[in-house]
Here is the input.
Amino acid sequence: MLRIAAISLLLIALIPFPSVSSPNDRGFDVQKIADGVYALMRREPAGLAVYANNVFIVNDDDVVVVDTSQSLTLTKNIIAALRQITPKPVKFVINTHWHDDHYIGNQVYRDAFPGVEFIAHAATLTDYPSDGVPNRQQMKTGIPPLVAKIKDLLKQNKNLAGQDLTAEERAAFESDIEWAERYLEEVPTADVILPTIAVTDRLTLRRGKRTIDIRSVGPGHSQADLIVHLPADNIVIAGDLVIWPVPLAGLKSSIGGWVTALQRIRDLKPAIIVPGHGPLMRDDAYLDQMQGLFGSLKQQVDAAVARGETLEQVRQSVKLAEWRTKFAAGSQLRAFLFDYYVSGPGVAAAFREAKSGL
Here is the structure.
């Protein structure tokens, strides 16, 4: 979820299709993953903040876009990349959830394509005004001191834990600063675009020969997650239900629901998974790892709550070191991100669910 100290959300496999070259360096690669299907994969390093991957689905007469950038300027660059592929108009924009890094660019599509429809989970209609708008204000006030702190740490060659910076962490900090300064410049005054089509369970679009299956597989990363399934191409666009290299849990995430959602994605047996952040995936190995982590987290927290433990006690009794090692893969940065998102708000979210009987 969007939190001041974290700035926002975290955040390639080679494929047998050529990329579309773009004038200037726009920070993303356009990868053709099926006939008429293009994944726009971000190139920023992992860190506290990263832009979301986007997808173009080019149909007989129109285009369906999945997720938009947090930046209005970068969204214009993304549309310019689309224009290199096709002159067809964008008919639908699907938001896999309402967090700013997947949503703010809606304004640019609204202005560029009159009549475009915006599809999102029905919870967006209440959650975005109640949570998203206040989050923007918190970010506006919280980002400047954090940026100042990161700049100071760069001068000291230290990370947020006081350790010497690795090259990976330095690259992450520099990218985080660019992201944060762009956020402050563009997001606070961006329009709130609510969905014109709300999905509670499932919606199927038929665009010429193509079927686009939009599904709610339950809450996980947020309470308003959707996936997009292209059955003919065996592709799943997973949004932030799948985030690499470390899943981003928030205080309002559903840990138990995340386990179920990942299984429902795996049951579709996709040949290609487009994550919300991170590289294209051509098997479900990473989903299996995420599912194992959240299953273990839920089981341990449920047992601790049954013993009558408080949240502070649960934080001490839950053992995640094995999972931390798996996700960190020897990286000091990834280990920090795991502690920051999973050991912190992930445990709190599981505790909340266990207490409420969810």
Notes: The radius of gyration is 20 Å. Residues 154 and 170 are 7 Å apart (CA to CA).
